[in-house]
Design goal:
The chain is built from five helices and eleven strands. It is α+β, with helices and mostly antiparallel strands.
Length: 166
């Protein structure tokens, strides 16, 4: 008789939706909220940590420079919150939620590559004191809904690339 055992997960390990499109592997954190513009918000009480998705950082390639609004700035949902610069492009970032900037990730000044290596953890951009999360909810996607959108966007990009090569 064999006995199956379950190995418990490490207590604070985040869970992800994961997919492979062609040779690219993408992750979406299950406990975050997302904008359709490839930014995320992790909400803890009245504070949201904001960053960019795995899809956006992969699309841009190696991030060379990160610019964000500074502490004390107010940003509305869907307003520009900053920009990412890579060898491929400079992209304006859209804020997923409304609030006042209370902290920026100063680590990114010297290590912008954290956006690439850890987009959902160490590569966060800024923290906001939320104004009204409930008013912002209609413009946000659940992780599952964003994962579906990511798969669609990734496949569209792949078809564009194959169209250019073929």
């Amino acid at each position: 008789m064999t006995k199956s055992i379950q190995i418990p997960k490490e207590p604070n390990m985040p869970e992800y939706y994961e997919t492979v499109v062609d040779k690219f592997f993408f992750k979406v954190r299950k406990d975050y909220l997302y904008s359709p513009y490839d930014t995320w918000a992790s909400v803890d009480g009245d504070v949201a940590t904001v960053g960019v998705t795995d899809l956006l950082q992969r699309k841009l390639g190696d991030i060379a420079f990160v610019e964000t609004e500074g502490p004390g700035s107010s940003v509305e949902q869907e307003d520009r919150l900053g920009a990412l610069e890579s060898a491929k492009a400079t992209v304006d970032l859209t804020c997923p939620v409304t609030g006042e900037v209370i902290e920026v990730n100063t680590e990114l000044e010297d290590r912008p590559e954290l956006v690439n290596t850890s987009p959902y953890e160490d590569g966060w951009l800024l923290k906001l004191r939320l104004s009204d999360l409930e008013a912002d909810r209609p413009g946000l996607l659940s992780a599952e809904a964003y994962f579906t959108l990511l798969q669609k966007k990734a496949n569209e990009e792949l078809h564009k690339l194959k169209g250019l090569k073929g």
